[in-house]
DNA sequence: TCGGACTAAATTGTCAACAATCACGTAGGA
DNA sequence: TCCTACGTGATTGTTGACAATTTAGTCCGA
């Protein structure tokens, strides 16, 4: 499962009313891509028109997304895309650290298939190359596939879902930040350590390396956000 | 914040329609207490009558709880209390292990107030006494307060919410199991280690001890559930 | 006895209309 | 100029009725 393709379900273009889960997936994707920005209100009327559903349905979809943590709700004022405070970012970061660490542990505990081994090696090689060539965009893309692969191999549905939600509010910031090549060398060293531990099947090392990696990322993230927003 | 008192909000008995969040809290509490058993369907009409709200509202409340993970939804068949598969219990257990571990770490990183220190010491003393006297009920109660205190001191809103949801589906099983005095000695030894690490402010030790403790609990839980359900 | 088709009740899905509330601009007076 | 009061449009809250679907029972024939 690749969480960057949450809403890659095909459009139903037959004039039929889209399913509730379909609409939810599309809104999630919009939030993820930043089409719906943090703090932006989602007006029921707009959702109704945009997705071609009734208002009752729209309200239920929005309430579900509130429950999942994508949206905030305020009485008589509807919903808006969840905003991130400085403290919230820190809180998320610490939880994300241990969850991503667990993903690495679980992945390392599993016996990799040959295909998984070569996929991992290929992604690592691509990141090495991108680091060498200071190609931030390629690195960012490979970075995503790297983390996704680990979560996929970890094969824990609870972890997958929680991590998806934890990643949403910081994804945009990470994206902007990723074009800073300054940290690329350090980040790739982390990746190499993680990759090695995974291929060795060393769960302790994999978890420790991943936690260090995420912790450093969190520190950069908070610093970056502070520079942006004061 | 004590997550066992989620729905302790007072009844509004004025004939007024209860607030949405109030109803949600009460349903959560019912699920937690097992009044709504896993797999049990929640019929919209019943919810409407039970809580005195309109059906539209009821549907939105239920959809929110689906989003939060308390309920499962199936098209044209409504919602039911989330069921737990064997694999699901294992997946939850592994995530819970690292989250509770993080709670212990965060708690240990904080400087305890005198009041917190004495509260912790009192709970530990109560558990020691209960273990000595093989008083399973007292032990179970103190055990809850112990884990709640740590989460509260950890003071991380993301952690608090995630842990609350993770605990729901296994709470009932833990409750039945808690009257088994067999593991009480072992469990209290774990608690002592955790308490000591917390009072020492040793974050590494606190996290490690808590993770070991939860991992052992998970193992007992799965074994217990297997005996129950085959 | 078994199984399939049919009916009726229960339940969920959908929609439209109306009420309540909020946001915002404007007019009037000190 | 400033501030309050008011009114209007925009938005959310709520309800009820009706449609679609599922569920459960019954009848009937092989």
From TrEMBL, chains A, B:
Record-linked InterPro entries:
GntR_C (IPR011711), TF_FadR/GntR_C (IPR008920), Tscrpt_reg_HTH_GntR (IPR000524), WH-like_DNA-bd_sf (IPR036388), WH_DNA-bd_sf (IPR036390)
Positions of the HTH gntR-type domain: 17-84
Keywords tagged on the record = DNA-binding, Transcription, Transcription regulation
GO MF terms listed in the record are:
DNA binding; DNA-binding transcription factor activity
* PANTHER family reported for this sequence: HTH-TYPE TRANSCRIPTIONAL REGULATOR LGOR-RELATED, TRANSCRIPTIONAL REGULATOR, GNTR FAMILY
Q: What is this protein called?
A: FCD domain-containing protein
